[in-house]
Amino acid sequence: MKYTDFRDRTFDFLFKTLPAEDRLQGWPDSKVKSFMQLLAYGIDKAFIYFFLFIALPALFILSLYAAWQRISGIF
């Protein structure tokens, strides 16, 4: 199966972490399924927000610092 979305991969991973008897019967409960879908959605959003608000600004600040070091002649 080819995955096209991070959320699908996360959802599949969370399904595989269920106990074996629940996996044999399929989803044990619709509430568990909806909770795991919500959790997969949250992991997906956290992944995006981490890069958007933490990783990219940190790279930008580090590049400014490196440019300042280069201009200052310290580097």
What does this structure look like?
- This protein has 75 residues and is mainly α.
- It has one domain.
- It has helices at residues 6-16, 20-25, 30-72.
- The radius of gyration is 21 Å and the shape is rod-shaped.
Topology (elements, then pairings):
Elements: H1 6-16, H2 20-25, H3 30-72
Helix pairs in contact: 1-3
Provide keyphrases for this structure.
single chain; 75 residues; 3 helices; rod-shaped
Short account of what is shown:
With 75 residues, this protein is mainly alpha-helical.
User: Roughly what fraction of the amino acids lie in strands?
Assistant: under 5%
Distance between the termini: 50 Å
Q: What is the count of distinct domains?
A: 1
Largest sheet: none
**Gyration radius, rounded:** 21 Å
Quick check: average pLDDT? 73
Alpha plus pi helix count = 3
Note poorly predicted spans.
none
Name the helix and strand elements from N-terminus to C-terminus, one letter apiece: HHH
Kindly state the percentage of residues in helix. over 70%
Q: Helix/strand/pairing class, anyone?
A: mainly alpha
Shape annotation? rod-shaped
- DSSP strand count: 0
